[in-house]
Amino acid sequence: MAGHGQRERRLAAVQQHLTPSVAATRTGAGHGSSSGSSAVATTIVDVRAAPASADGRPASDWGGIQGLGQICVAVETADGRIGFGVGGGGQPGLDVIALALRPLLVGRDRADVEALWEAMYKHTLAYGRKGLTIMAISGVDLALWDLRAKAAGVSVAELLGASTAALSQPVPSYRTAPNDLAAAVAEGYTKVKLSIGGMDVVTQPDEIIATVQRAREELGGDVELMIDATMKWSDREAVLRLCERLARLDLAVAYLEEPLPSDDLEGYAWLTSRSPIPIAGGEHEQTAAGFAELMGARNRTLLCLRQQLFVVS
Fold this sequence. Notes:
about 325 residues, alpha/beta, TIM Barrel, 2 domains, seven-stranded mixed sheet, three-stranded antiparallel sheet, 12 helices, elongated
């Protein structure tokens, strides 16, 4: 679980960086900032963001340091409270927040979080809807929810209705381990996901099968094994042939995640109706409208909201 601790330390350092007073960070009235005693306690007086990395480089799940990395967002209100949220989009995401979202939010009341999300979504509709703009909005939205929870004196989870008993329970998690599977098991994981998208499903099916077989042999029968193609394949019939082979070999693959591009809804509908192995997807879908389309089409056996799975068929 060392990666989790490293991420927590990185975010703590960024939060400290984003904590200076508004007077030191405000860029001026040209952004519609609110000042003076007339501002009510819940008025937003600043929105700022920084790369989520202690050394100033954007940590990234998408392409290393040069990729579109995680960002940390701080929203401050007139009463001095600061809410923090984590989003994505790297430097472009920071630009969206500084140039589009900050001018929109400064001077507004932070209380109606849902209305502020709608305002941000509509404000960026011409170039947003999905992708890095939504990732940036998500960071601001989480910061606003953090503010709402702090004002209520509870955690965000409690604000959303979680009980004390539920919060004391461990959260199931898995480790994506492209190589050293034994290390993941040694760290205490009972679920492991194997990345296989680097191999071509049309020309390298034997290599994929061999890789999954080795993983199952290394993990044994007590560890749940998932495989992830990271949207790299496009031939649905080749994917189906692979799934059929995996099923015949009885390798106990829990699911195959994102074998096709996210927008190939028809392909997913075709594949999930035929595959003997559950098909997962939706990690790269965004907003309630996007998920409504997926669930309405029933074209995934499992929907992945980051690391939570929901059965829909």
